[in-house]
Structure formats: structure tokens, C-alpha cells
Amino acid sequence: MTAGLLAAVAAVLVVLEGLDGPTLPATLGLIVSGLLAVAVVLLAEARPIALAVAAAVSLAVSAAFGLVPTLRPEHTFGIVELAVLSVAVIRLVMQHPLRRAAGPAALAILAIAVLPTRVLLHPVNAGTMSQYGDVLVVALTAWVLFLALLGLYLRLLERRRADLDRLARQAERMDHARDLHDYVAHHVTAIVAQTRAIRFVTSSGAAPSAEDLDELLAGVEQAGGQALTSMRKLVGILRDETPATATAHAGLDEMLTEVVGTLTPGHPPPTVSVDEALSDRPWPPASLDAAHHTVLEALTNVLRHTSGTTRIDIRVRVHPDRPDHAEVMVENDGRPTVSPLPAGGFGLTGLGERVRAAGGDLSAGSVESGWRVTAVLPITDRPATGRWRSELRRAASGTAVKELR
Prior knowledge:
CATH topology of the largest domain: Heat Shock Protein 90
CATH superfamily of the largest domain: Histidine kinase-like ATPase, C-terminal domain
CATH architecture of the largest domain: 2-Layer Sandwich
Number of strands: 8
Strand content: 5-15%
Largest sheet: 6 strands, mixed
Order of helices and strands: HHHHHHHHHEHHEEEEHEEHE
Strand order of the largest sheet: 6-7-4-3-1-8
CATH class of the largest domain: Alpha Beta
Low-confidence stretches: 241-246, 383-389, 398-405
Number of helices: 13
Mean pLDDT: 74
Radius of gyration: 37 Å
């Protein structure tokens, strides 16, 4: 509707300009070339072939005015026509491939350059032409160069916007993939581990007791229910129109209790210790979310990639060298095994991206006692000062440690 309104206004202005023609043929020439330019630019969206036709008609009218003195207008050469052709050149260079736009754009620029000659060749304006001819040439050259450069600049801006949109969509897909892994992989891994345990027990020839079998099946049921809950949570995030930056947790202790509670029966219960200075202090949401996923991913890897695990230690303490950071460490003594589950590629890699996005660092590797995953995360939005700094330093010295059972 906006394009139609602009076209109507421009058409009226073209007709008013055309009435300045000294004869009916001159008036018709001004109106036809002007209306065609308006139609091409505002209604046909400056298609290359349409613009080439409009520019050719404009050149033909200008040539007719130059060859037939009685057709030359005295006051106006088609200002609206010049304006819409200028817009057409900009849109053509901005929106179309250069190999398609070069020819029509050059033709339109030529039409723009000769438009003023319709008036300047009139005998009344001969003195003006001889006096300001050089200035006119320079002005027209600068104008057409400006049109071309502006079109190229807008083209680059549009390409940059498209690249940013593509990168944003790619990042969003990666976020969804990480969320799917983080929410579901842990519980599915637990289901697979429990199922393998049941098959191992039943294939040994000795039937398990009803209590043992019920405990194993309860673990499968628990993991399946948690997987469904996580899937619903993920679907809720995907449906939400506002981007979710981090999973909301009530606090550090509640988060650890929640994650540890996802371990199915048959696995050693983790030993959890937390510096008291960290337990009762609010964490930045991104850091708490990264800590949650660090513990969850480490426990998932215990289920997937180790055997014979007898000890799982979770330690959250103030970093000894960086008192405004916390160290979240998960260590186990299991032996590495080849997992029957395919690697998804979003485990430690995705976790590292999440930790770095929160302003922290992640390390993972084998130690003498087994395998350790450590995340160092900021626990203050700004450097710690005063009493808070002294409490953090006291915690970093090894005192005031609370164990969660």
C-alpha cells in the first residue's frame, strides 16, 4: 500500500511537470518517460530488465528533445524522473547480482546524466550552459558516483545482516542441540545402564530376588520419568518466545541435591562438599547454570564411560588463587570403558562453550585416582571486596566446608 501511495503521488508530480512542455508532443514525452520510471521503480521493484527499458525510453525522449528544438522544455527536465531513476540505481546495485545489475545500472546512470540537457539545450538557457557547463559535468559525475557507491554500501550492509542472521540461526541450533543433550542424555544413559545391569543379572543364570529386580526396574522407571520431565522442559524452552539464558535454580545446595538425585540405584552415592561461603551466597545465574551442567555432564560420563566405580566426589570450593571464582570439581575412580552409546559431540565440547560463556574455564582429564572434570566459574558480578572477600579467602584456605549427604 505504501508503494502504491508513493507511486500515485509521484505520478501526479510527473503530470504537473509535463504540463510545462511547450507543445503537446513535449508534454507527452515528459509524462510518458516519467510515468514509466515511476512504474518501474515503485511498482516493479526495480527489476533489471524493467529498469533497462525505462532508461532506454528516457534516453530516447532526451535524444528527441536534443534533435528537435521545438520540443525542448524551458523550465523542467523531469525532476521526479531523475529522483526515481536514482532510487532505481541504488536498489538495483543493492538487491541484484552485479553481473545482472551492471548493464541496466549503467544505462540508467547515462539516462540520469543526460536528463538536464533537455532544458539546458533550450535557447533561453544557452548562456547558463556555456557558463556553468563544467560545473554541471562535475556535479553529475559526483551524483552518479554517489548513487553507485551508496548502492554498494547498502548491499554490503544487507549482506552483513544476512550473515549475522545466519550465524544467529546456527548458534540457536547449537543451543538447542546442547540443551537436548544436557536435558535428556543423562537420563537416557541411566536407562541404558540399568537395562544392561538387568540383562547381566538375568543372563548369569541366577535369578535376582524380587527386591533386587524391583530396585533395578525402579531405577529404569525413575530415569524414564526424569527424561520425560526434561523433554517437557526443553519443549517449553523452545516454545517460549523469549530466549532462555540460563536454567533457573533456587541455589547451589538445591541444584546439587537435584543433580545427585538423578543417579539411579546401583551406583555409588556421590560425596558432596561445599564451602559454606559459597553455599549461602547468590551466584550469577549463568555461573550456577554452568555449574549445574558441569556436575550433570560429569555424572553422565561416569555412567557411560567407566566401570567399577566405587567413589564419586563432588567438591565446590572457592578457587585458592582467584577468590572471586569458584572451583566445581567432579572426580571418580572408575576405569575407562568403550561406551556402547554413540558419542553425540555435544558433551564436554558443549559444556566448555557453556562454561566459557559464563566467564569461566573448563578442564577435564585423567588423574592418578581416576578422572576429573573441573570448572572455574565467576561467583560475583564484580571483583569481591571487603567482608565478602575475607570470607572467600577464609574458605579458600580450607576452612568452613559443609558436606551434603
